[in-house]
Design brief:
Distance between the termini: 51 Å
Number of strands: 8
Shape: globular
């Protein structure tokens, strides 16, 4: 018998079902908080982890950046893409904006609509894995589904080594 999902993970499963999306939330006993932890638990590459990072604009609006787990986000590129300076968001800001704690922020089902940027590098992968509301819950999807479910804008937001 399958163990029931935790409350936050079930919320994401319900959002997926309500949107007619067939994805199944999987909850692990070990953490999937970091991209490396998630990849190890799932058995995929770190690049396939769609990590969610919330930034705070200079006007105090939240911006969700969904990046490949193998990339570091270039904050200057994010600011250029949205046309406004950004800074780090603290845990309270993230929870207020999304309804979820850092380490488990999913790409959908947020407390308020979020402007979303998607790392262009994710679009080259056949499948990816995203957080599903807790630091140990994920679901598999395609990059195209990610763009569709978030209404996100694909952008070059990764730091590049020169």
């Amino acid at each position: 018998m399958t163990k029931p999902l935790s409350g936050a993970a079930q919320r994401i499963q319900d959002v997926l079902a309500a949107r007619g999306l067939p994805h199944q939330v999987i909850e692990f006993t070990q953490t999937t908080r970091s991209a490396a932890d998630a990849a190890a638990a799932i058995g995929c590459t770190v690049a396939q982890i769609a990590k969610s990072i919330v930034f705070k604009t200079s006007s105090s609006a939240p911006v969700l950046v969904i990046a490949s787990g193998s990339n570091r986000v270039d904050e200057a590129k994010v600011a250029a893409a949205i046309g406004e300076p950004i800074g780090k968001a603290d845990a309270d800001f993230v929870r207020a904006a999304t309804g979820f704690a850092i380490g488990g922020v999913p790409p959908l089902g947020h407390a308020q609509p979020l402007r979303t940027l998607i790392d262009r590098d994710l679009l080259a992968l056949p499948t990816i894995w995203a957080a599903a509301g807790t630091p140990n819950a994920v679901f598999q999807l395609t990059p195209e589904e990610l763009v569709g479910m978030t209404g996100g804008q694909a952008a070059d937001i990764a730091q590049r080594r020169s």
